[in-house]
Amino acid sequence: MTKLTVLATGGTIAGIAGSAIGADYRAGEIGIEDYLEKVGGLGLEAELSGRQIANIDSADMGPEVWNALHPAICDALKDPECAGVVITHGTDTLEETAFLLDLTLPADKPVVVVGAMRPADAVGYDGLRNFANAVRVASDPEAAGRGVLVVMGDRVFAARDVRKVRTRGTEAFRGFPRESIGLVTPASLEWFGAPWRQGRGAAFDWCDALPEVVIVHAYAGFDRAGVERQVGENTRGIVVAGVGEGNMPESARQALVALARRGLPVVRASRTDEGLVDREPEDEENGFVAARALNPQKARILLQLLLANGITDSAAIQQRFDRR
Ligand code: ASP
């Protein structure tokens, strides 16, 4: 039997409503031991050992839990008996954790992040199926070499592509620019294409004190004051959730140019749901970086890691954003 380590962080997958049809529920209620007992009846073809890292609503996910989660994953991956890791997580910030781990873990064993949109006692709970699917993916040697994977709604996504696009319903995740990279059910798994990261180590060393990067959200009427209000003494970088293809009003642009000249990297992403933000000729003059396919919250994670590794020059930052 394939041995997998399950690291639990909470979320709706471990949530309880107290009623099969109620609207309200609490995320992060079921402990990992109880959860593994619950899935024990599914007949999954893997031996699961669990560890509770946190039991939170993923709105509260951040450095504190990441600093416990990352070494726990590394320990599991180092164990020759462990074939892969499954992480249970709330869906609200799942894409940020998955992308951060993708950039800081080696790609030699499967690491799969999974959540649910309905609490465990709700009618139509999707968590058991998603979990069974995640176990199937993590048990497949072909899952290695694809970076951190996210399993939701019978689909497999690469961490870099995935994002939550809906507040409700079980089809809440999509990928961009690649849609899903595989289809999974508890009984089957089909990959679209071959692994692309075999044998590669982590892109970045782990950093337990990520620098402060703020996301400033553009809107009609956004201006210099809107930028300056959000940039504090400790801010080391800025991501703009720009309108359209990472655009912003002139007054805000001028404020950001001034900050870029003071040495704060400025990355232009888009507040739209999906699409590329490509480099434009003015970026050179402005000292800006184009986020390409990354949404603002993922652009923030990448910028934090780059800054933590001493990469502060906008051309070098752009190069890393350009790399898929
Ligand atoms: N608020 C929940 C969380 O992110 C939502 C979910 O897991 O679906 O923890």
Structure report:
It is built from nine helices and 14 strands. 44% of the residues are buried. The protein starts with a strand and ends with a helix. It is globular, with a radius of gyration of 20 Å. The protein has two domains: 2-191, Rossmann fold (3-Layer(aba) Sandwich), CATH 3.40.50.1170; 212-323, Rossmann fold (3-Layer(aba) Sandwich), CATH 3.40.50.40. It is of the alpha/beta class. The model has no long low-confidence stretch (mean pLDDT 97). It binds aspartic acid. Aspartic acid binds at residues 11-12, 27, 57-59, 90-92, 115, 117. The site of aspartic acid has 11 residues, from loops.
In the CATH scheme, the class of the largest domain would be Alpha Beta
Q: Unreliable segments (pLDDT under 50, ≥5 consecutive)?
A: none
Reported for the largest beta sheet, the result is: 8 strands, mixed
Sequence of secondary-structure elements: EHEHEHEHEEEEEEEHEHEHEHH
Care to count the β-strands? 14
Do you know the CATH topology of the largest domain?
Answer: Rossmann fold
**What is the terminal-to-terminal distance?**
35 Å
**What ligands does this structure carry?**
aspartic acid
- Provide the helix percentage: 25-40%
Q: Quick one: overall form?
A: globular
Beta-strand residue fraction: 15-25%
Count of folded domains: 2
At the fourth level of CATH, the homologous superfamily of the largest domain is L-asparaginase, N-terminal domain
CATH architecture of the largest domain: 3-Layer(aba) Sandwich
- Average pLDDT, to the nearest integer? 97
- Which class of secondary structure composition applies to the elements? alpha/beta
